[in-house]
From TrEMBL:
Catalyzed reaction equations: N(6)-succinyl-L-lysyl-[protein] + NAD(+) + H2O = 2''-O-succinyl-ADP-D-ribose + nicotinamide + L-lysyl-[protein]; N(6)-acetyl-L-lysyl-[protein] + NAD(+) + H2O = 2''-O-acetyl-ADP-D-ribose + nicotinamide + L-lysyl-[protein]
Name recorded for this polypeptide: NAD-dependent protein deacylase
Gene: cobB
Function text: NAD-dependent lysine deacetylase and desuccinylase that specifically removes acetyl and succinyl groups on target proteins. Modulates the activities of several proteins which are inactive in their acylated form.
Source organism of the structure: Salipiger bermudensis (strain DSM 26914 / JCM 13377 / KCTC 12554 / HTCC2601)
Keyword terms, alphabetized: Cytoplasm, Metal-binding, NAD, Transferase, Zinc
Amino acid sequence: MADKIVILTGAGISAESGLGTFRDEGGLWAKHRIEDVATPEGFARDPALVHGFYNARRVQAASAVPNPAHTALARLQRDWPGEVVIVTQNVDGLHEKAGATAIHMHGELSGALCFACGHRWTAPPQMSPGEPCPACAAPTGRPDIVWFGEMPYHMDEIEDHLLGCDLFAAIGTSGQVYPAAGFVQGAAYAGARTIELNLAESEITGAFEDHRIGPASEVVPAWVA
Ligand SMILES: CC(C)NC(=O)[C@H](Cc1c[nH]c2ccccc12)NC(=O)[C@H](CCCC/N=C(/NCCC(=O)O)S[C@H]1O[C@H](COP(=O)(O)OP(=O)(O)OC[C@H]2O[C@@H](n3cnc4c(N)ncnc43)[C@H](O)[C@@H]2O)[C@@H](O)[C@H]1O)NC(=O)OCc1ccccc1
């Protein structure tokens, strides 16, 4: 029985597709305060600011193309005799554009959510305050994104995959945000081998047995090959 592989991806895998990361030089959090644009409180305080932040990223992500790291993971998922599960913190659709399937634990820019009735629909390119819900007609549409202080999506499914995997890999993540940053401990505890692929050391480098340092577009295809 071929190994089961779980791969966690972060903003670093999409950096070479032109999508800014959060914490690197000139990253998203250098230009915006997390509290203002990525918390439910910030959305309640100034929905126009938050919609503006995600509208700009939605347009950028729509024209972005996958890089060799995304395509290598799609190939691995297609050709590996065992199960390959991609869990992403990213809200861009680049894994899917590369032909892979991924569990979006922090939501997707392409999605809209009604915080009154819970209905989900495809987000229009530009959302605005009071965005009407097509199901309950209430003016309560928000980006379908997991903000700080909110429970990430698909956690039970993800935990099942972590406890049953033979190899856990993390690609392009700084390991500063939980619960994603704790996945390596869960997988290692369940007996999985662990590898980190990143441009530089991260907050959780010490938790991994193996490492590949370099740009994702180079180290990921080399690792998959
Ligand atoms: C800041 C941090 C301390 N705070 C948290 O972790 C909080 C609070 C918290 C919970 N538990 C804790 C325990 C301890 C301390 C704090 C907490 N967590 C939460 O609020 C979470 C919700 C967090 C989700 C917030 N939303 C995001 N994103 C969507 C929004 C949006 O996209 O706008 S988080 C966002 O930042 C996170 C980190 O970003 P990265 O992807 O890692 O990107 P970053 O820029 O940081 O790093 C890039 C990396 O790539 C590398 N790189 C760059 N270029 C390349 C390149 N070319 N190639 C390769 N690598 C490269 C760089 O070297 C770097 O290492 C990602 O998750 C990303 O999605 N919710 C929650 O905990 O709910 C309750 C709960 C309780 C129990 C069980 C479950 C839940």
